[in-house]
Design brief:
elongated; Rossmann fold; 13 helices; 416 residues; binds cytidine-5'-triphosphate
């Protein structure tokens, strides 16, 4: 029995911060059928707390209504350099914005950007903008592949603008190919990643495991568990958003990452996960073992499907290597090692035993006895047990919020 009563229980509150909260985003819409996507994009940006202002070209008004856009953005949609004897202050707009997104970017406007042409408000704003400019082109495949488009794209990139890749898919012409503008969610992820990462974990290298492992019995059967990987993915994204370099080693999971900059390595078995962790461990500052690694694996993987014969079947299992313990053994003074414990009974005692035995710096405990917490749920309820004896209990929260709590805790424990 491990003594726990001497340590105070701290209830820790963390306000979940959103990357786009209060960020000022100026959208320039040009004449392309993809302009309809800006309705959803505006809605999503506003929902995430961004302040959105919109400039539209005359050609774009054929594709999307300024009334819809002004209603959703809660700001007047600007089109002309002057109206009702008032001059639209394009210089001020480009200074106001944290980022100027031109989306969709038509072939015509691209050519004008590349050549410094200034015959509308959008172009005047672009030429005077001091903020970063992000371009989301949209055009038919033949236009997209035309040498002049390639040359113009290279030119605008050389000016320091960044370009969001087009997708391959159904085009307005009815053809299928390259040139489809990125979807609103992709644009938002791009902006977050390219423009709005913070620096709390800058220069920190993070290794995270997530999801279940799958241990094959024969070509069609396996042993695994119900881990979804959601918790580890949310921690990886939170740390990446705060500037860390993140390597995520994921067991088989349906989860997708929103940031392309996270290095994701997919593995299947406990053995693969161990080997991959060992490859990256020495080069990592923060190591977070949130995967539900199988404790046992079949001694033999049958080459052929096991046929149904006897009334019972025994499969011999052997213990897998404990990744957290191995990392705990080789841990250096500058590394911070986080383990997880999923318990059904004697939760605190079991978690403290894991903390000590595996030489972790802290253990994140989830209890399967807490309603709506653990495998498969979008919510979780954790207690963090620290090697100094601190114990912090959190309430039931979304896994994204729990990730923020864990990341804030790690930050509070780093020496720098
Ligand atoms: N873990 C690991 N390698 C393993 C098994 C577990 O790295 N082969 C890690 C998990 O990623 C987690 C911690 O060890 O961070 C605790 O995992 P858990 O399954 O709760 O505990 P076990 O050590 O496997 O013990 P038990 O199953 O008996 O509770």
């Amino acid at each position: 029995m491990i003594e726990t009563a001497v340590y105070p229980t701290v209830v820790f509150y963390y306000i979940y911060s959103v990357m786009l909260e209060n960020k000022k985003i100026l959208i320039g819409i040009t004449g392309s059928i993809a302009a309809y996507k800006i309705i959803l994009l505006t809605r999503l940006l506003v929902k995430e707390g961004a302040v959105v202002k919109i400039i539209i070209t005359k050609a774009a008004t054929d594709f999307v209504s300024p009334l819809v856009l002004s209603t959703l953005s809660k700001n007047i949609v600007l089109q002309d350099l002057s109206s009702n004897s008032e001059w639209a202050n394009h210089v001020q707009l480009g200074r106001w914005a944290d980022v100027f997104l031109i989306s969709p970017l038509s072939c015509n406007t691209l050519a004008k950007l590349a050549n410094g042409i200034c015959d509308n408000l959008l172009l005047a704003t672009y030429l005077s903008a001091t903020c970063p400019v992000v371009l989301a082109p949209a055009m038919d495949e033949d236009m997209w592949k035309h040498p002049s488009t390639k040359r113009n794209l290279d030119t605008v990139k050389s000016f320091g603008n960044s370009v969001i890749d087009v997708n391959n898919g159904e085009l307005a012409s009815g053809l299928i190919g390259e040139g489809r503008m990125a979807e609103p969610e992709q644009i938002i992820n791009y902006l977050k990643e390219a423009n709005f990462r913070t620096t709390e974990f800058k220069d920190k290298k993070v290794l995270i495991t997530a999801g279940p492992t799958v241990e094959s019995i024969d070509p069609v059967r396996f042993i695994s568990n119900h881990s979804s990987g959601k918790m580890g993915f949310a921690i990886a994204e939170s740390l990446f958003a705060k500037g860390a370099e993140v390597v995520l080693i994921a067991g088989p999971t349906k989860e997708k990452l929103q940031f392309a900059g996270i290095t994701r390595i997919d593995v299947v078995s406990a053995n693969d996960m161990y080997a991959t962790c060992m490859e990256y461990a020495a080069n990592s500052d923060i190591l977070i073992m949130s995967a539900a690694v199988a404790d046992y694996t079949p001694v033999v993987i049958e080459k052929n499907k096991i046929k149904k014969k006897e009334s019972s079947l025994n499969i011999e299992l052997t213990k897998t290597k404990d990744i957290l313990s191995a990392l705990g053994e080789q841990k250096t003074a500058n590394q911070f090692l986080v383990g997880f414990a999923l318990e059904t009974n004697n939760e605190i005692d079991n978690a403290l035993q894991k903390l000590n035995k595996k030489n972790a710096d802290c253990i994140v405990l989830n209890s399967l006895n807490d309603a709506n917490a653990g495998f498969g749920f979008d919510t979780n309820k954790i207690t963090i047990l620290d090697k100094s004896g601190e114990r912090i209990e959190f309430g039931l929260k979304s896994k994204k919020e729990v990730a923020e709590d864990i990341v804030s805790f790690i930050k509070s424990k780093l020496n720098d």
